[in-house]
Structure formats: structure tokens, C-alpha cells
Design goal:
The chain is of the alpha+beta class and about 300 residues long. Helix content is about 40%, strand content about 20%. The chain contains 10 helices and 12 strands. The strands form 4 sheets. Strands 2-3-5-6 form a 4-stranded antiparallel sheet. Helix 8 packs across helix 10 (about 245-265). Keywords: Plasmid. Pfam families: RepA_C. This is Plasmid replication initiation protein RepA.
């Protein structure tokens, strides 16, 4: 753990020295994806089975559309989604081309051009693109609002296997709904930080969630928000058993990963406080002001 912390602290110091826009690592994530997180590990459901969980007010489901692929999980789908959102903001296009080459694209999502990473990418990409993400709000204020998010309407992902010329002809056509959500409701992130935290899907989720929570505080002009440990476990700790020990294990792991996130978002460090039943987040400077801002991140 000390080695990991030391490495992340050094990386955070390097990132701080270079403005996010000058090094072209300004990215974004949609508000839906900041609230509803994919499984961290393989849920080990039968292929084609719906995955669902509830936070009490929010029901999050992943619905496979193919009998051949399971539920996307882990860091790779998160890296792909962040790349998609960021690319849309840059290009303003629904049809995205996945780099100049296979190696180029894998590098963009922090993977290596070797057999293991190619296989992992292929499997998780197909799981992701052949799924529908469903969000339902069950509180009275939201009037039982529901939203279904289809990532892609059409994809052509070509992996080099036997061709001599090693052609790369991969593209992705986003659904109009997902494209609109990226354009209209995205929160800025630093892709360098997302990659730095990619050894832990939980840390990646806490990063986007914290950035989004503080963004909402500023937008709503509220001074603080309270989130109970129970709701945090529903949202982030689905893999932990619903026992006292499972709850303690989740809290311990969440604290560790939150500490890692705060290495990179130092402005928020004094604005995230813990008590016996949850976290209190108070309003502070945004991580990155706007997608078109010239302010530096911290």
C-alpha cells in the first residue's frame, strides 16, 4: 500500500506542474455515468442475464442485448467510456474513429498492444457496446423518472489477426441519446488522473463521483451534502456481503481509495469530512472549472 501511495503522490505532483489543457488531457464523463457505476469485478451472472442494484432512490441496471456476451466490468469499460465522452466533446460527432491504428487506440485508453490487453479490450468493448444502461429514480420529487442509455447503435471493431497489412478500420456510431447526454450533461475530468487510478475501478468511480458531487453543489448553490455509509455501500460496494463484516470491509476500502483520489483533487481534501454514519461534502472550487475553461486543475 505504501508503494502505491508513494507512486500516486509522485504522479499527482507531476500532473500539477502541467495544465490539463496544455497537455490535451481534458476529458469528461456524463452525469449518468458519474452516478451509476459498472461492476468492479465480474458479477459472474449467466450470459444474457440482467444486472441490477438499488441505492433506495436509484435503480441501476445493465441489460445485455446479445445472448453471447455478459456484463461489462472493471477498469476497461470505464476507460472506453471516458474516451468516448472526451472524443465527442472534441469532435462533436456521433461516429467516432478509434485512432490511427490498434496500437494508437490502446495507448489512448492506457492499454498495451499485446495479446493479453487486446483480448481484454475486445471482450469488455463488446460487452459494453451490446448492453443498455437503465437508470430509474424512485423518489417522489423525480416522479419515478427513468432513462435508458444505449451506448452504440452500430460498431465495427476490427482486430488484427491474420492480415499482413494489419489494417485498422474500427469505428463506433453512438446512439443519439448517449451523444446528446455527452453534449448536454458532462462533467470535466483529467484523463491523466483517470488513467493513474485505473488499477482500482473503485478509485476511478470515487474520482468521477466526487467531481460530480462538488459540481452539483456549485450548480445548486448548496453549501453541503450528506451521504450515508449505507447509500455509499449500495452505490459502490455491491461486491461486499450485506453483513457487519462486509460493511466494515467496504468502509475500509472506500476510505483508502478516497485518500488516493484526494492526492489529485487537493482542493477537496478539507471539504470531505467523515462521521459515524456517512460523509459530509462541503462546497469548494471545482476540479476543472468548465470544459472550455482556461483555469488550472488541482
Amino acid at each position: 500500500m505504501f508503494f502505491r501511495y508513494n507512486k500516486l503522490i509522485k504522479y499527482a505532483l507531476r500532473i500539477k506542474k502541467k495544465d490539463v489543457k496544455k497537455v490535451n488531457t481534458l476529458g469528461c464523463i456524463t452525469k449518468t455515468l458519474a452516478q451509476a457505476t459498472l461492476p468492479h469485478t465480474n458479477p459472474k451472472l449467466p450470459i444474457g442475464t440482467l444486472y441490477s442494484r438499488s441505492t433506495g432512490q436509484l435503480i441501476f441496471s445493465i441489460i445485455p442485448t446479445s445472448p453471447n456476451y455478459g456484463i461489462p466490468y472493471g477498469s476497461i469499460p470505464r476507460l472506453i467510456l471516458a474516451w468516448i465522452c472526451s472524443e465527442v466533446i472534441k469532435t462533436k460527432k456521433r461516429i467516432l474513429f478509434l485512432g490511427k491504428s490498434q496500437s494508437d487506440f490502446l495507448k489512448q485508453i492506457n492499454l498495451h498492444n499485446n495479446g493479453r490487453d487486446i483480448a481484454r479490450f475486445r471482450e469488455q468493448a463488446l460487452r459494453l457496446f451490446k448492453s443498455v444502461i437503465s437508470i430509474e429514480y424512485n423518489d417522489e420529487k423525480k416522479n419515478n423518472f427513468s432513462s435508458r442509455l444505449l451506448i452504440s447503435e452500430s460498431s465495427h471493431i476490427f482486430w488484427n489477426t491474420k492480415t499482413r497489412k494489419k489494417k485498422w478500420e474500427s469505428s463506433l456510431e453512438l446512439s443519439d441519446g448517449f451523444f446528446r447526454e455527452i453534449i448536454d450533461a458532462s462533467v470535466p475530468i483529467d484523463i491523466r488522473i483517470f488513467h493513474a487510478l485505473s488499477k482500482s475501478p473503485l478509485a476511478m468511480d470515487i474520482y468521477t463521483w466526487l467531481v460530480y458531487r462538488i459540481f452539483i453543489l456549485q450548480k445548486s448553490k448548496l453549501s453541503s451534502v450528506f451521504i450515508s455509509w449505507i447509500n455509499l455501500k449500495f452505490q459502490f460496494g455491491v461486491g461486499y456481503p450485506n453483513t457487519n463484516q462486509g460493511f466494515r470491509d467496504f468502509k475500509k476500502r472506500f476510505r483508502l481509495r478516497l485518500k488516493e483520489v484526494l492526492f489529485f483533487y487537493k482542493k477537496a481534501k478539507r471539504h470531505v469530512r467523515e462521521n459515524k454514519i456517512g460523509l459530509i461534502i462541503t462546497s469548494c472550487d471545482l476540479h476543472i472549472s468548465k470544459l472550455n475553461s482556461k483555469n488550472k486543475n488541482d
